[in-house]
Design brief:
The chain is built from 16 helices and 23 strands. The chain is α+β, with helices and mostly antiparallel strands and 638 residues long. The strands form six sheets. The protein has a seven-stranded antiparallel beta sheet with strand order 17-16-15-14-18-19-20, covered by helices on one side. It is globular and about 100 Å long. It starts with a helix and ends with a strand.
Length: 638
Amino acid sequence: MDVHGKIREILAETIREELAPDQQHLSTEDLIKALRRRGIIDDVMKELNFVTDNVDQELPSSPKQPAGFDKQSTLKKTTIDPTRRYLYLQVLGGRAFLEHLQEPEPSPGQVCSTFTLCLHYRNQRFRSKPVPCACEPDFHDGFLLEVHRENLGDGTRMADSTTMLSISDPIHMVLIKTDIFGETTLVASYFLEWRSVLGSENGMSSLTVELMGVGTESKVSVGILNVKLEMYPPLNQTLSQEVVNTQLALERQKTAEKERLFLVYAKQWWREYLQIRPSHNSRLVKIFAQDENGINRPVCSYVKPLRAGRLLDTPRQAARFVNVLGYERAPVIGGGGKQEQWCTLLAFLCRNKGDCEDHANLLCSLLLGYGLEAFVCVGTKAKGVPHAWVMTCGTDGTITFWESLTGHRYIHKPINPDEPPLAEQPKPLHPYRTIGCVFNHQMFLGNCQPSDAVETCIFDLNDESKWKPMSEEAIKSVCAPGATTSLPPFPPLCASTIDASVTSNEIEMQLRLLVSEHRKDLGLTTVWEDQLSYLLSPALASYEFERTTSISSGNEEFQDAIRRAVPDGHTFKGFPIHFVYRNARRAFATCLRSPFCEEIICCRGDQVRLAVRVRVFTYPESACAVWIMFACKYRSVL
């Protein structure tokens, strides 16, 4: 009852008692301490019922609310279940981001490069507000992480410090830089060990987190973040720092021992594999791969059955989603071949692009989630370029290859090398040349057939004379969930935050402007026909439908509508094109490089009418497929 009245009385009393005449300033902390001392905060916490319906309504604030309270605003607007344990993580600024020492102060309204911090902890994902890149970026964000969601034993009991000490999941933090053109780069990826807070006296601890670079720069510091951790509700009893340190040391020791044993086993397996044939030395049998932090991890740990919830409905839709995530090879400073870097899933999703291995690992994980028997294949494409793709084995023995970068599927029909030379042989449609190994979260198999050519390869994975398996027990010891503390947990996929129709309109308007300007430079006028633009929509929808399902539909209606819209004696030309980014200027420059499209945009003639239609299809993780169609109709003058 009358909490505000009580708080006002206590504050007045505290100010009278504790303010010496010469010191006229009390900090928010002092006031909160005074309230704690009189048990008010605990009473209030007990009395609060958190209702989900009015989350957005602010709690009624008293007229004189201390200014420090806005820091806690996340706590105010979030639904807190008082029977659960939370960890409140605040990022309070960064420093020593020396690469940005020379950056000028951005003037108001000016577009500048930004940093965004992405977090993942036990199936919860968070994103900070973007802050301008600077030597001391102004991060000020609070994240409320629920420490135990699964019912650990008795679901109604609050997790105590000892229970929480056994929760070894780290908080994965990924720092992304977005430049003024919307291009993203991965700056740092860090695993924060949060359990130090269990041993701090008042249930709070402040840490400085040194972020290291990625790939070839994984030994170089990129900057420092100030992080504050706080348990919520406060712990009744804290553990001694010694207990916490001992537990962490034990876990590290156990992990190191498991990894050592696996390495010994992998070396032995490789020696045996080489003894089958000396030529095996040149096959692409990849047992370990470096992640973005330069740490060697078994390849099987990059794949895990991943369920997309209600965000994706079919395996083919999942393949389309993976295909619209951007493709970018790991950056190298200077020349010298391909820098290999497999990314953890969070780093790949947050920056929305990655190499072919990242795409293949994600697609394989999604297909495993759909209950298919899926494997990542490591081999080469034409000209001996190393490549990774996905394979599924049907219950009837059908082998299907999925190209994760294009979304294409190919049925594998092996060629029999022992057939007479004139016998009809199936012609492979896929681009793959050789295959060294296949793996998923439980199995790793090295190809030990006489030839590693894909076209003659027999995918009978149970035949040990064709595929040399690794022990599933050995793989499980380092790759099963929770087997070691060094494995990053898989984050869930996030729904798209992009509004498809708003984005479609924006890109369409920008393209109209670009086309008009381009024609003006050529001395041509531009007349747009809205009705013709609208008629192009069904075609774009059917192209996307075909990409997702491999079935084309609705073409007859589109053709019929166009025939009716184009009068006799007129010519219609249309040019569809597809992008996975939303930058209109970049798309327009690409379109002009196509002679067909250039012919439409620069069309001359009698009664020229132009049309352009853009349709953005959104997928999880703010990935999009952008379809653009340029068209024109004009009177044919012979």
